[in-house]
Amino acid sequence: MARILALDFGKVRTGIAVTDELQLIASGLTTIETKDLLAFLEEYTQKESVERFVVGLPKQMDNTASESEVLIQGFLTKLKAKFPSIPVERQDERFTSKMAFQSMLDSGMKKKKRKDKALVDEISATLILQAYLNRF
What tens digit of pLDDT does each residue of 4-49 get? Predict the structure, then answer.
């Protein structure tokens, strides 16, 4: 089986998570500067088989799209053009940043490490991917 790759897309940084080949376990992969994201994905898909992309869907509490959705839509257009054979699905990402920070607290992570926004983005991507896997 191929992997599923999830993205917690951000204006500056994007957290990336990936499944194992059996699509059972979601693990953080890395955080990349968003400007380098498509190049990173191209390199990654040359080395690993990717079945689909899961991109976080930011929503407000009233279920309306958040303001960052405009940026994500522009990225999705480029992603689909670059990888036309890889389907893209969306996963609600509400509370993932808060949950990521809480998991860092719960694990006893030192305060300095918890301030690492890149790590929060990577954990958020992992939570997005796990929520996607839990749907099935």
Answer: 999 999 999 999 999 999 999 999 999 999 999 999 999 999 999 9
Long-range own/partner contacts, residues 30-35 (CB < 8 A, 24 or more apart) = 30/122, 31/118, 31/119, 31/121, 31/122, 34/9, 34/10, 34/75
Between CA 53 and CA 19 the distance in angstroms is 11
Whole-model pTM: value is 0.85
- Look up tokens 């509400």; give the residue: 94
Q: Which helix (H) or strand (E) holds 126?
A: helix 117-134
- Could you write out the DSSP letters of every residue in 57-120? E-B-TTSPBPTTHHHHHHHHHHHHHH-TTS-EEEEE-TTHHHHHHHHHHHTT--HHHHT-HHHH
Q: Which two tokens stand for residue 129?
A: 């991917």
Whether residue 56 contacts residue 124, with contact meaning beta carbons closer than 8 Å, is answered with yes
Calpha distance 111→98 (Å, rounded): 15
- For the segment 57-92, what is each residue's pLDDT rounded down to a tens digit? 987 777 777 778 889 999 999 999 999 999 999 998
